[in-house]
Amino acid sequence: MTDDVRFPSSRGPELAGVLDAPEASTRGWGVLVHGFTLGKDSPAAFRIARGLAEQGIGMLRYDCLGLGESDGEWGDGSFTVKVDDTVRAAEFLAERGTAPALLIGHSWGGAAAIVAAQRIPSVKAVVTIGAPAEPAEVERHYDSVVGRVMEEGTAPWLIGGREMTLKRDFVEDVRRAELIAQVRTLGRPLLVMHSPTDATVGIDNASEIFRAAVHPRSFVALEGSDHFLTADGQADRAARIISAWADQYL
Q1: How confident is the model over 172-210, as pLDDT tens digits?
Q2: Which of 41, 77, 174, 247 is the most buried (most CB within 10 A)?
């Protein structure tokens, strides 16, 4: 069962979300944070949230600023805004009486989830899937225009057939972001999931995050999967693993 929802971002414009609610009894609730420019309906976000709902865990997935059905401009976001909006999503769930105990982040969203979890009292466990050890790793995707951005303040950036506006504030914020120290102070159980053959964010990132984490920590290799979990059954498998691992924290 799904419901479309909207809530204000930390910057003001409304964000579009989807509640994937269990059909039967509910074991708990969580928030799923999508990757860099992917959106709530990307294969990983959609299939994992749906799979967890089938396992009795209600999920909120949402489009970040300027993506999908959300208002605002993507270029007005940043890593800090992504973290702040993850907190806003958790507050939205709490306001409706379903405070999240679980925070899941895919790719860049995994880095944001680690930082945001420390500001969400209800979150008892965190999961990262294909997360980078440093948020600034994404700069390689827009390195062809970053010089112009730093010189002129903005520049158009084409990705996946979409044109976005990259801004100097965005670049500078991402460069300042630091994750590993945040992993050490997470203070919650962490499940690190990563494919050994991930060609987008290498497996060394998972090793660095896992080494920095304190117990309880767990690692699951998503053998045979690509970064975006598009192969048949991979996202569903990830959802089953998360459901079993998170059971004691719900």
Answers
A1: 999 999 999 999 999 999 999 999 999 999 999 999 999
A2: 77
